[in-house]
Amino acid sequence: MELREYMSVRRAYNLVRQSMESNRRLTFEEFSILCKLDVAGEPIKTSDIAEYQGALRPTMTHRTNHLARLGFIDRGEGVTDHRNIVCTISEDGRAFVRDLSQRTCARIPAGQPLARTSAERIRKYVDSMGSVYCTAGDLVLLGLLCAPDGSSTIMRLVDALGLLQPTVSMSVSSLCEAGLVERGHQGDGGRTASVSLTEEGMATARVLGERISKVVVHRKARKLREA
To answer: What's the whole-model pTM score?
Structure first.
């Protein structure tokens, strides 16, 4: 998967999420769980979902409990081993994730990666993308990695990432304290504050980018031509 494809989908979903009612707002990780269950078309053990997302059991319990409370998944005992908890997407969950996928498609502007893709394809992308966990700070690093010379402004990052300005500002402050980014001024008389990657930040962002590049988005098998 290309980094710019990943960023295009994350930006679009961030914008969709902002427009939703707070009581039905899902994290990207919860969205990816629904996509995985919808794409799989069969129940999946909670432990397998946790392994796929690289999440600890308490974290996965919190995510699946939230989806279950919303009526989007059903949680039950495994058939062969009652100690296993399996998750199945509900009809409401299937309808909801397909609506989210369509709305995410609509928020990818023309000229951007995946602008002409389908909602079905978005679900497959999000399913695969769920294997790489990225915080808001990680997204800021990746946004700077994609920017010319690894530098940008807060407002350009807000637009590039689809995140709220306070979220970006707080993430930049945390990254500055960690030595991963530094603040400066652009060449407009010093009026516009800029944010740029440090050498350590560039190395960290590249590692994240390499992880994303290894994500495989599965495609439909092509039908054999009839003789």
So the answer is: 0.89
Q: If we measure between CA atoms, which residue out of 115, 139, 182 comes closest to residue 27?
A: 139
User: How much of the chain is in helix, strand and coil states, percent to nearest 5?
Assistant: 55, 10, 30
Distance CA 119, CA 35 (A): 11
Handedness of CA 5, 8, 13, 16 (dihedral sign): negative
Distance CA 54, CA 131 (A): 7
From 44, 15, 45, select the one nearest 28 (Cα to Cα). 15
**Structure tokens belonging to residue 161:** 């990432």
- With 0-12 / 13-18 / 19 or more C-beta atoms within 10 angstroms meaning exposed / middle / buried, residue 73 is buried
The pLDDT, as a whole number, for residue 52 is 93
Number of Cβ within a 10 Å radius of residue 61? 15
- Per the document, the length of the chain is 227
Q: What is the C-alpha end-to-end distance of the chain, expressed in Å? A: 34
Distance of CA 138 to the CA centre of its chain: 11
Cβ neighbours for 222, distance < 8 A, ≥ 6 positions apart: none
Half-sphere exposure in the Cβ direction for 43 (13 Å, CA)? 14
Look over the chain and give the mean of its residue pLDDT values, rounded to a whole number: 91
Residue type, 34: L
pLDDT at 81: 54
Residue with more model confidence, 10 or 81: 10
